[in-house]
Design brief:
21% strand; alpha/beta; 6-stranded antiparallel sheet; 28% helix; 5-stranded parallel sheet; single chain; 28 strands
Amino acid sequence: MTIASRWTFPIPQCSLQQWIFGSACGPLPDPTRRAFIDPAQPDTNYLTMADYRLLAKRVALGLQRAGLAPGDRVLVFAGNSLFFPPLFLGVLMAGGIVSGANPGFVARELAYQLRDSGAAFLFVAGQAAETAFEAAREVGLARERVFVFGGEGGGGGGNAGVVSAREVVRAAYPAPGVKGRVDGARHWTELLAGNRAAADRWSWKEPENAEETTCCLNYSSGTTGVPKGVEISHYAYVANGMGVVHMNNLHPDHAAKLKRDIGLCFLPLYHAYGQTYFIANLPRLGVPVYIMPSFDFLKMLEYIQRFRVTTLPVVPPIVLMMAKHPLTKTFDLSSLVNIGSGAAPLTLEVCQEVEKLFPGGDVHIRQGWGMTEVTCTSMSWDPTTAITSSAGVGEVYPNCKARLMSLDGRTAVEAAGERGELWVTGPTLMRRYWRKPAATAETMAVDADGTRWLKTGDIAYVDAYRPGGIFHVVDRVKELIKVKGNQVAPAELEGILLENPDVADAAVVGVTVDGEELPRAYVVRRPQSAATEHDVARWMEGKVARYKHLKGGVVFIDAVPKNPSGKILRKQLRDRAKDEVGDSAPKMAKLA
């Protein structure tokens, strides 16, 4: 049985840039409205909506002049800045495909993505230039195809203010303060040289078929294998954005709400979550966005208070910090009306701790659910629906459908509360994995009528098997621990561990000891706690069934390894556990 969304509406066959701006040269609803603002210099360093469109068009013209052909991939290896969104859309306007890379990559990791994507151009933040040059050499990408960010007013305080962002977009020949070339690589503003007047008149070419035209090649996290490029079409990106707009419009006071809304971006813009919200959806809605160069918890709290931020998309580690950090309560966060968490599961207990910061009881952590493979979102909340439990991830997204299946994929799960693997379909679904047909076939199931379903690998249940039913994501199929035939969900044990006043963070993995898989916890102890590892294990025994006891041991660590979107890097911990106590470990290292 399939659960369809309560909302369906047509998706326009247009490019992402057309959906955001309406046209290449026509009037904008509010051209002087500030789209992106540097929170370190808000009065002087910002881009308006008119600046956003014009700068993106100038980037597009510059890339075409530099030799970009339709369908070429452009890899962006940089952190957040005011210029990331116009660069992103400039590539699309030129007919290219954007692929963002984690700015923390080492040369080997960057080279993998350059080679796998077949990138024709590389944009790199100045501080990471050496890493980029090494990776480019390894894959044979000419230095002429590498452009460097830095020196212009991109935001963040460090080198911001050399030239303001608005001066860069308006000048015929931008002079960002970077003279000449960086080891032979051009500064990115060379793309803008002399093309301001032409850009005013220039229009991009709309894709002939938006469903079959890839705009973005976002790489999956690779937490269970090598990263895979996920092909997202213009149509899918627009469908995702229209869902956000529709859900926002359900708010009973949505017009007044939009006038008050302020966004704060610290999520990485190379990642689907930050990308979709801050490059596309909030600009389309007319919501100004303050862009932080990277995440800084105390600055985040300061900016929420200072700029009266209302909309805060976050990932679970940030919610956990809000719940546990002693300074959270010293800031005025009363402007917040929407805290949305995604990218990884979040426990009810942590949500409730944060919700206690708002005495009125009208602010809830709204968890959503999505994957890179569905552009961003597949489950969301109707703002008119009362939240009875922040542990849910909402209902099926507009125009989408979901079903729950047995783990072998043969039998439908149709009872409320019964767990199964979540399958989803809809217009936001990826085209395929880039150049990996076998991986695509393994991940997709196709019905007799041709409907493609994404087998998400997530274990979930729904509270009512009908449209509008609220889904709860329990864990990943590949992360379940089998203890004497019983399935143990690491996320469940982690949520319970976070209830312990001595525990700041935790991750649970399975480890095989003497042929038996057992749960093992890696725990970050709270400052000033005197608890021992044995204390934590004993405390847990009073909370769960015997087969869920931490028989694989408890280990204190400084920090739980996570990727930038907040997903626990379990493979690292499983490998560590295997070395410490697993069947392949030295005898003396095993559990007594």
